[in-house]
Structures are given as structure tokens and as C-alpha cells.
TrEMBL record:
Gene that this sequence comes from: holB
InterPro entries in the cross-refs: DNA_pol3_clamp-load_cplx_C, DNA_pol_HolB, DNA_pol_III_delta_C, DNA_Rep/Repair_Clamp_Loader, HolB_lid-gammaproteobact, P-loop_NTPase
Function of the molecule: DNA polymerase III is a complex, multichain enzyme responsible for most of the replicative synthesis in bacteria. This DNA polymerase also exhibits 3' to 5' exonuclease activity.
Pfam families xrefs: DNA_pol3_delta2, DNApol3-delta_C, HolB_lid
Source species of the chain: Candidatus Pantoea multigeneris
Transferase as UniProt keyword: yes
Residue intervals of the DNA polymerase III delta subunit C-terminal domain: 208-320
Name of protein: DNA polymerase III subunit delta'
Key word Transmembrane present: no
Amino acid sequence: MSWYPWLNQPYRQLISQHQSGRGHHALLIQAIEGMGDAELVWGLSRWLMCQQPDDMKSCGHCHSCQLMQAGTHPDWYRLEPEKGKSTLGIDAIRIVTEKLYHFAQQGGAKVVWLPDAGTLTEAAANALLKTLEEPPGNCWFFLSSRDSARLLPTLRSRCMTLQLVPPDEALSVQWLARQTSQPQTALQTALRLSGGAPAAAAQLLQPEAWQRRQQLCDSLNQHAGQQLLDLLPVLNSDDAPQRIGWLLSLLVDALKWRQNAVQWLSNCDQQPLVQKLAQLFTPLALDQGIRDWLQCREQLLHVAAVNRELLLTDQLLRWQMQHHT
């Protein structure tokens, strides 16, 4: 698994707490996509599982380290929804809880990781809460969350919270420059479109993903101010929420352009398109368009069995009707 330099400080901080006997049994990691919460949990888990750690590092040689490296450690549990399901039910929590109260099979620590605590059903969250209130000895829980507001307040209150904050943009650009040969404006754009998360920016800069964004920009450049319904083919895909996110960033940038805040643009590499949108739409139309597209994306993400093509068509027609300057 990869390791990122911006994880060094939180890793050392957390390991120091464990070394001094102050490690919290439940850690809630708040992080946006691409900040490396999975890598951090993996590194912490390896140290906790290691039978003879070398200061802040796992030894890499003991039986536990070998099992962790092979992904077969019997006392390391990763809990996530079954394939095809969007929620994690109470049965999964009960099964793991039962195992936790028995002795660790390797005689050491036991670790439970929830890559997305937001997938817990209310019943599952309450069952986990009971375990967190009276945790078994030498048992550690890691909960990752993209939006901790969706978690039960009582569950949040039982955890120590760690927020993985994006690194300074200049440092992130330097790191990205070592991963790809893309120009500086592309690196800056990818970072800003990824909320400052460097690993997510690196993913976006992969040729296929970057080409999809370019395709959206080209199509918008061609059809903005004309038949906006012609944008349907480029929006109607499995990654529609991400494409709408790119569209939203361009509309927000158009508002910034109108306010002479050009230095704060997210789409640094698309300034002519941003300027075009700023000239085509009034501030009121841009503001309304942003609200409507946000609502459209929310429906795509959270409404079960929504008709994507119909929803996008309806939104594009509504957008077409909004007044242009």
C-alpha cells in the first residue's frame, strides 16, 4: 500500500499516544477522498499488530507482520457493505463483536476498521456504540468518514476525532510534479478540483480521467449559449456526479470572474471558457444554475433507482430556460 508524506505527522502523533499509554480505543478519521485515510489506518494497524515494533515502525518480520502483509491476519477486521449493497447492517457488527470478546487468535491486538462509517444503518451504529462504550481489552477501532455529520452524534462522542487536513498547495504541487509530467496549471487545477487532496488530484490527472474532464469542457464551450440539451451525452454516464462537480466548479469560477477574483479560480487551465460563461450568464442565472445542479447531483447520489437520463434532461431543459445576458 502507498504511503504519503503528509501522513507522517498524524502517524507519529498517534503512535506517540499509544507508546505513552494514551491511545484512544476508537479513532474517527474525517478526511475527503484522496487524503490517505486508508493508508494511515493500515500503517497504524501494522504497528499495533506487530509483536516487536521498532520504535514507531512495525518490524516487518514477525508472524503478525507477515500475516498483515499477506492480508490474512485473523484479528484485523475490515467492515464494509456487501457487494451490491449500500449499507452495513447489524449482523456484520454482531459477528465481529462476538469475535472481539474472545481471545485474539494471535494473542495480541485486535483491530476493526470501517472504511466508511456513514454506511452503518441506525441499528448497526447503535450496536457498535454499545461495544465502544465497553470495549474489549487491547482492541482498537478505526472509523473513516467523508461526512461525519451523517453519523449518530452518540457514536461520534465515543471517538477521538482526527481531521486529515489537505497540505499546503505549493507542497502538494511539488509532490504531484514528481508523479506526472503534466504542466503546472494542470497540477493546480486538479488539486483545486479535488479539494486540495493530493492523491485524488493524482488520480484525476490520469489520462483517461483528465480526458473525460476535457471532453466536458470542450462540449460546454461548444454548446453554452446554444442548445444546452446537447450536453446530455457527455453528462449521462456512470460518473455523472463527478462530471456535474466539474460543471459546478466552472459555474462557480464564472461568478468569481465576474467579481474580479481571477486568482481564486479552480479551473486555472480553462480561463477562456470561464470568461465565456461569465459573459453568457447573469450572476443571478449562475447562482440559480449552481443551486439546481447541486440538487441534481444530490438526487443522483442519494435517491435509489433514480432515472439518470430523465433527471439530467429535465435539468438541462430548465437550465436552457434561464435568462442569458
